[in-house]
Each structure stands twice: as C-alpha cells, then as structure tokens.
Specification:
This protein is an alpha+beta fold. The protein has eleven helices and seven strands. It has a seven-stranded mixed beta sheet with strand order 2-1-3-7-6-5-4, sandwiched between helices. The N terminus is likely disordered.
C-alpha cells in the first residue's frame, strides 16, 4: 500500500465543471466537525466547508481528504455522495443510523459501520455511539451518531506519525478501528467491577440486586451486538490483504486489533453468562429466603393456634362452674333444689365433676 492508487475515473479534474451541482447547505446547518487535506502524511490545509474541500482535493490529485461529520444533514450526505460517487444504499444507512456493525464494499469504496462504547459509572450504563466510515482511494469520511468515539484523538495520533498516515485512507481506517476497540477496555473494566459488587450484594441479601442484574444484562446484550460482528469484519479485511495489496505494517496493525476484538468479545460473552448464573443463584436464594419466611410464619401460626387451644380449653372448664352457679343464683322461689338440704353439696360436686371431665377430655386431645 506504499504506492498510491491512481485517481478513479469518476474524479473530476480541477478545470472540469461539476457534472451535478451539490445542494448548498446553509451555514447554520453545517455539521462538519473537521475537514483536512493531507499530502505525504502531512496536513496541507483545513477547509471550513465541504465545497472548499472538494475544490482543493481536485486541485491536488495526489492528496487525501479526511472529512469528519457529526449527525450530518441530508443535503450534506447527498453532496458527499455526488462528489465521491458513494453508493445510495450506504448513504441511506448513514442517514438513518441504528445499524449493526458491518463491512460492505461498493466498487473501490469501503463502507464500515462501527459501534463505539463508553461506560457511565454513575448510571452504570454503557453509552453507545454509531460511526459510519466511507473509505475510498483518496478520501475517508466519518459520520458520527453519538458522542463516542472521540476521533480528534485519532487525528492527532495519525498526524504525529506521518509515515503511517502516508499509507492512505486504509491506515486511518485501521487507526479508527483501534480507537474504537481500545474504547471497549474501560467498559469491560467497569462491567467487571459491577459484577463483583453484584455478587457481594446477592449473598448479602440485598432485595434491589435483581433489578441491577437485569439492567446490566440488557447492557451486555447491546455490548455483544457491538463487538461480536467485529470479529468477522476484521477477519474479512485480513482475508483481503493479498488481493488489495495491503501494506505489511497495516497488516500487523489489523491483526493486533483483531486480537483485541476477539479478547473483548470473549469477555463480553463471559459477562453475559456470569450475569445469567448470578441471576439464577439470586432467584434460588430469594426462593430459599421466602421458604424460610413462610416456614417461620407457619411455625408462628402453629404456636399461636396451640395457645388459642389452651385458652379455649381453660375457658370451657371455667365456664362450667360459672353456668351451674349462675343457675342456682337466680333466686326463684319455685326452684325445687332451693329448699333441699343436699343442694349445696350437690352443686359443688356437679361443678367439680364437669370441670374434671372437661379437663380429661381436653388433655386427651392434647389441648392442654
């Protein structure tokens, strides 16, 4: 890749009038983050508009344009498509966003979709940003949807290494891939820390931990969708080394990025499995705790029932003499036992017999 490819036939010369007029984008709606032209790995200009970038690139056929956009307007993307002959399907994807990571080749243009990530520790959330990249023989266009990744760092890094930047747009693409993959490392570290905390909370009996496990599991599903397709994408790029004459330095660079992606993807798969296992363990512990509480309630209910039986038994025993005494205390003149000499002993014996009989019955029923 040390030799630059010839300028495509569709690229117009500086003196050739445009075949189509790109839509004029109002100044207040422009979303160009940065546009720069490079020659031999060094920046030669930083145009402020897309039109100026197009003009300067036509004037310097041996240059390379690196254009960065963030949430561009439809007019801007159509302007880029008209200038660089971008495929309409790729442009449509870049407009709509919400794409899964993928790599597609349209002639001499490579279209790459990446999902960058950064970890928000306070919210315990993974924030994803979408990045669309168009790579041509003499241009590289990035379209960002979201705060991540910070491509200014990639630009500064590449400008400090002119020899690497001189290898062309492919070198910039690999640098962006490396930045996105390196950005996964803090996310992995943050998730690992959260999983350690969750394990402590699970065995500590925290009732709110189930929600935390579920929310983190959802984040890992999204993280998987961002990292898993990258493995196949990078292996696809490596498979085209010989066909597209990729520079040996870039080959080493890409293999290193592929190793990091594979490692990250395996970690993410492990996190998701770990969270599934933790959720199962937590459910088991919650069930055991509920069973223990139910058993304690049952035991308390049983003890309460025993006390009620004792109280009821003694109440019945005490009620018998009260009933007899109440009857004989009504003071009616016509009651036959009132003038009987043995009436009092009979009443006392009757109360004693009834009480003893009730006591024996309740004792046999184990109520006393």
């Amino acid at each position: 890749m040390s030799d630059r490819r010839p300028r495509p036939a569709w690229r117009r010369s500086p003196t050739e009038p445009p075949a189509t007029t790109a839509p004029e984008v109002p100044e207040e709606r422009r979303s160009v983050v940065q546009a720069s032209l490079y020659r031999d790995g060094r920046r030669v200009s930083s145009p402020s508009t897309l039109a100026e970038t197009f003009r300067q690139l036509r004037e310097h056929p041996d240059g390379m344009a690196w254009i960065g956009l963030q949430r561009p307007t439809e007019e801007e993307l159509h302007s880029l498509a008209a200038e660089f002959d971008l495929h309409e399907l790729a442009v449509e994807d870049a407009m709509e966003a919400h794409q899964r990571p993928k790599l597609e080749r349209y002639g001499e243009t490579l279209f790459v979709v990446l999902r960058a990530a950064r970890y928000l520790d306070a919210q315990e959330e993974v924030e994803f940003g979408e990045l669309h990249i168009f790579v041509g023989p003499d241009f590289l266009i990035t379209v960002r949807h979201g705060a991540a990744p910070d491509l200014s760092t990639v630009r500064r890094r590449m400008e400090k290494d002119p020899e690497l930047l001189a290898l062309g747009p492919e070198a910039v693409l690999y640098a962006i891939l490396d930045a996105v993959v390196d950005g996964y490392a803090p996310v992995v570290a943050g998730v690992q820390n959260d999983i350690d905390e969750i394990e402590t909370e699970v065995f500590g009996g925290d009732p709110a931990v189930s929600r935390r496990i579920y929310e983190l599991s959802r984040e890992m599903v999204e993280f998987q969708r961002a990292t898993r397709p990258l493995v196949g994408m990078l292996h696809g790029l490596m498979a085209g080394f010989a066909k597209y004459g990729t520079d040996e330095e870039l080959q080493r660079y890409l293999r290193d990025v592929a190793d990091h992606v594979t490692h990250t993807s395996e970690r993410v798969d492990g996190f998701r499995q770990a969270l599934t296992d933790i959720l199962t363990v937590n459910a088991t512990l919650v069930t055991q705790q509920q069973n223990a509480e139910m058993r304690a309630l049952a035991e308390a209910g049983f003890e309460q029932n025993e006390e009620i039986k004792k109280i009821s038994s003694w109440a019945a025993i005490l009620f018998a003499p009260t009933l007899v005494g109440t009857i004989y205390g009504m003071n009616f003149d016509n009651m036959p036992e009132l003038h009987w000499a043995g009436g009092y002993p009979f009443a006392v014996v009757l109360m004693a017999v009834v009480c003893v009989s009730l006591y024996v019955v309740f004792k046999k029923k184990d109520w006393l």
